[in-house]
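seq as requested:
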Amino acid sequence: MVGSTAPRAASRRTQLTVNEICDELGIARSTFFDWRAKGKAPRCIKLPNGELRIRRSEFDRWLAACEDAA
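struct tokens:
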């Protein structure tokens, strides 16, 4: 629909915020950043304003790797 202000469906988003990742995993932001510091979080894109985004495809790949390792 042209000019629609409806938000995109979460399932169609190709990049997720740290908050969205944490909500999906049920973890605190501090846990995500601990994992990131240890190199155990999904790869992130750092935007010019310092915010992080995670590609949905990277998150899905990372999650599958966690499942295989369990």
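The helical segments are 18-25, 29-37, 56-69.
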